[in-house]
Amino acid sequence: MKKEDLKRALLNEKEKYESKTFDQLVKIDKPVTYECGSGKDWYQVEIQVLEKNDKYVHVVVSVDDGRLWRTILPLTSSFIVYKDK
What we know:
This protein has helices spanning 3-18, 22-26, 68-72; strands at residues 32-36, 43-52, 56-64, 75-82. The protein is of the alpha+beta class.
C-alpha cells in the first residue's frame, strides 16, 4: 500500500475514535486491533490508550500494511479527549 493511502487510512481511523466520548474511550483497557480492506488496499489498525485519568484520555492510532518496515515503524497519530467536553 502506498504511504499516501496509509496516511488517509490513518486519518479515517483516527476520526472514528476522535468522535467517541470520554466515557467510551476510558473503557478501552487493552489494545484494539483489526484489519481493513483487501488485496493491495489491506491494512492493520491498532488503537491504544496511552494515558487516562479523571480529566482526559490520551489515545494513539497506528496503521501498517503488513510489510516488515511498516510493522516496525507504523504510521501513528494521537489525540486527547477531555472529560468536560
